[in-house]
Prior knowledge:
8-stranded parallel beta sheet; 8 strands; binds zinc ion
Amino acid sequence: MLILRKYRIPLILLILAASSPAAAQLRIKPLPVPGFEQRIRKYIDTLSIIDTHEHLVGPEMLSNGFFLDFSLLLLQNGYDDLISAGMPDTLYDELFNEELPPASKWKIIEPWWQNSFNTSFNRIILYGIKHLYGIDGLNASTVGPLSDKIKKAYETNWFDRILLDSCRIRYLIKDGNYMPGKDNYVKYVKRFDNWLILRSKFGIDSLAIQQLDPIYSLEDLEKSLTLAFEKEVRKGMVAVKVFAAYYRTLDFARADKESAKKVFRTLVNGDMDFRISMNDAKPLQDYLFHHLMSLALKYDMPVAIHTGLQAGKGKIIDNSNPEHLTNVFAMYPGLNFVLYHGSFPYGGELSAIAKNYRNVYIDMNWAWSVSPTYTRYHLNQWLEMVPVNRLIAFGGDAMAVENVYSELILARNIVSDVLSEKVGEGYYSEDEAKTISRMIFHDNAERLYKLK
Ligand SMILES: [Zn+2]
């Protein structure tokens, strides 16, 4: 107070200077009518959402597992940060393999939570606890009541209510498989990584068993991929998902049948437990990747690729650098590629890639909870660099609906702030900002995944 009085005049000048239009951007549009921030915010709050990426565990599965308590909310981001904070793997295994009461789980978790309560992953959990269950904080006295409330909630249609009513999600795309009984709004993408990371005789035999058809040649192996792909097309998959960056580099070399055959022969001639390194298996994996791309092309399927930070621990981050993929983007101009997670931390590279390749979409799913600061910065940059028809805003990449709820609020907040700032500077008009928000939260994904 004393300081304020002492510097009264300079402070007033400072406030005046701050409230005049910023000079950060070209002023193209007339200054907006006051109240634009609230109007943009309200518009974005009421938008229908196409949620492009989730791993949700459905209510039925939850009722048969160990996670229908507070620990549900830690799946998987929260656990990753507990481990990052130092929790030993043995304790993690204990949490996942034994049925423990909430208080015992908390006893294991608490020391590591106290080292990681600060992260964005964990702030998202705290927000959901507070706003959906009315409980402040995660500690020894709250985990019991919170777990009771979670159990009770899941006895109702909580799962659908959070997604459809609270989040206003129109369609949701699940990773891996469809959800029985939720066909009205849950779609799915399918992974074919059993072919893309193949490096053992056992891997080939497993595919053969799955197909009920022996695999004696490279052609048989290709055929097994074709059959699996076509089966999913008939079942209704909306895109191919490439998860390979968890296991190997995204550098897929041009297909070379002879080298692929050589690797195939080495594998089938090996013993049951024979396996080779990812690097030695690469020619075969790369060859099958291109076969997968030819199928995606034939059936007009977008290809969604995990890029950037991998969940879990101890991964090779550079494997997921989207720069490895530029040859693929150039090779398949007729395919649309969706790069997940805003490629964290390769946001700058992603800007340049998406500007150069008109078949590349940026999808910001999960990046909101990885780092709100990153998404704020890069959304600004992507809006300045990439045509808006190829920006997709939201997917929670979550296993619990509570975390989808919180992450979506965070995403709506950040998009509102970024757009309001640009409208305030006269860079976009208020109407343009609304159009952008509708395109990135809904229209672009609806068009790309054919969800009309
Ligand atoms: Zn995911």
